[in-house]
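Q: Fold this one first, please.
A: Sequence and structure below.
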Amino acid sequence: MKFSFLIYSYFPFGGQQRDFLRIANECVNRGHQVDVYVLRWQGEVPENLNLIKVPVNAWTRVKLYQNYTKWVAKAIADAEPSTIVGFNKMPLLDIYFAADPCFAEKAKTQRGYYYKLTPRYRHFYSYEKAIFGPKETTQTLILSPQQREAFERHYPGCDDRLHNLPPGIAIDRKVESRELATRQQFRKEFNIGDDDLLLLQIGSGFKVKGVDRSLAAMASLPEHLLERTKFMLVGQDKTATVSRLARRLGLAKKLTILPGRDDIPRFLAGADLLVHPAYVESAGYVLLESTIAGLPVLTTASCGYSFHIEKAQSGKVCANPFQQLELNEKLASMLDSIKDADWSENGLNYGKQADLYSMPQTAADLIEEFAVKS
């Protein structure tokens, strides 16, 4: 079979992008042809994918996406018939992989009334409605219960076109136990003492990941914890805003910011606690990657995979609606009891028992099934 995969931008360290590439590779390994239409591609291009860079430009992101859609629509119409699989919301799609949360829900809960009067709102809402509207037929692969609830709430009748996927954690992230040697080597490299407490946050897009919440919670720690605590941020985004906030909170000397990288398991082994108080997150693979590596997690209920943290008992989850005071209190209490708690062992056990690794295979199964039916 032939598939056309549509994604605006690829870079190696985004969750959406990693999911796209793993699903594309799984389809190719099954003998299918995969054309990929992309605006920007950062990093090595796999030889087994037919990469097509869409040659359009625009002054605004909305216009750029509209130009992309028009160009791709014509290119696909002129090419051999294929099943169209999208990783961003847009018209044209036979199948949508829901890497992003519900836009209508986000606009309602995180934006003011006048946002709905903007061209940006009209564009993104129309592109989402082209997938979930009552007359549409696009099949959607979803990652979490939160997504299902939001899409069904804003687009009644779409429920029979929503299909659950298991997580797709890379199997090489699964470990039997925390590696003491790796931890010691990591902490020596970054000058972290045996008695220091290292908070780790991982993710591209610092604003939506709630880095401001993390720093505020750290700044609120009682002195006996704050003096021992360091914060490490790893991800792809502009750093100036984070650095300014850290200086304002008196945390500049305790903060290390590193770009996205491939050796994340070393960081999971070397840290004491993952903090991930995201404003909104469809899934949040880093929550599960940390859990199965034995690193305790502090996150928010707005993350799609936060229910895994509760199920595994591998950390704590702040309730919705978010309250900074709750995050502050949970951070302090977790750091106070980090050495005696069962979160690490619980996470390791969860990684050995649960189905956390088969998303690419399940997604490819569903894509094949829908392609045959279309």
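Q: Good. Now the second chain.
A: Here it is, same layout.
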Amino acid sequence: MDSFNDILSRPTIFRDRNVLSHHYIPETLPNREAEISKIMQTVSPALKGDKTKNVLIYGKTGTGKTSAVKYVMEKFAAAGTPSKMAYLNCQVYRSRYSILEKIVKEFVPADYKPGYGISYLYEKVLEYVSSDGKGLVCVLDEIDVVRDLDELVYTLTRSNDELKRGAISLIGISNKVSFKDRLDPRSRSSLVGTEMVFAPYTSFQLREILRQRAGMGFAEGAVGEGAINLAAAIAAQDNGDARYALKLLLKAGELADEKGETAIADSHVEGARLLVDEDVSVEAISTLPKHQQIVLYSIASLQSEGGKYSSLSDNGGSRVNGLLSGEAYERYASLAKRCRTEARGARWFREYLNDLEMLGLVTLTDSGKGQRGHTRFIKLACSPQKAMRLIEAHVLS
């Protein structure tokens, strides 16, 4: 049996795997210079404790939204003022209470008392900001998943009315341009600020990103232009996702290492594509909110059974394969009851379908108006059995 020393002493084409992670923030972020500059200009008044505009950042997964903001956070911290930027992943901190609690725990831990209510936490945040007139910028990543979003937005944006010194602002990061539609008019008006959209990376831009990371992450000569070009082209087809491109390059390197080879070939990238696609599906499904998981399970279970309507004519006479959205909604409502959860209405169901399509987990085809009325056909983009197994472990157990 190999020892750890044996494993670690083997030759490898890697120099530093960490730089191939999407969490790694390099000294420069290629092709996001303009966006970074705009964010820095917007939050700069906070360094002096002045009120800044709120910032809303939109874009698909892998377009550099979080990396750009974290890059700005590093520069902000290095400016040497009492002002702070607080990063909160709303997939972890999903309520106004947990977000305020996290801020108090991080910045004024001596004042944190378990079990105290929102009003106590809110007062402690205000005291922290006003004590020396600092600026506090709350970065809310995936802001759209916060359960009581209206209350959170109103609390943070209106806090400045009670501050005599200092200011609080927020940066909201979301995959959904439409997330503000969920807010009531009062919260929506208080959230007015700078809005930015991060466009998907092009194949050329992805090549630049991969070249930069390959130079830091691999031994010299281990990654040729052919492998970089292929990985960039594959990722560009998949919505210009830099995370996906980096995963491809990392997995290709691992495949080359396993075979004892000293360079990444096109065959390694193609092999990595199959493995990464599987990993991406697992990650996307396992991190879905509960209702989206129930919707996906409904689609998977129907598709595994064959569905009631597997092939119908669309408005143009073509054959469309898939499930009818009405059929899927009925199964969703039934499963929600089984999970002791109240099913959401048809409008929410449509939004959940759009979310699943954006993540690449389903494909949707509009039927137009025909004999069955206006509906959509739904088709799962991964194995129904795999999706069901993953969701059973998270929701239906």
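Q: Anything worth noting on the second one?
A: Confidence is low (pLDDT under 50) at residues 309-320.
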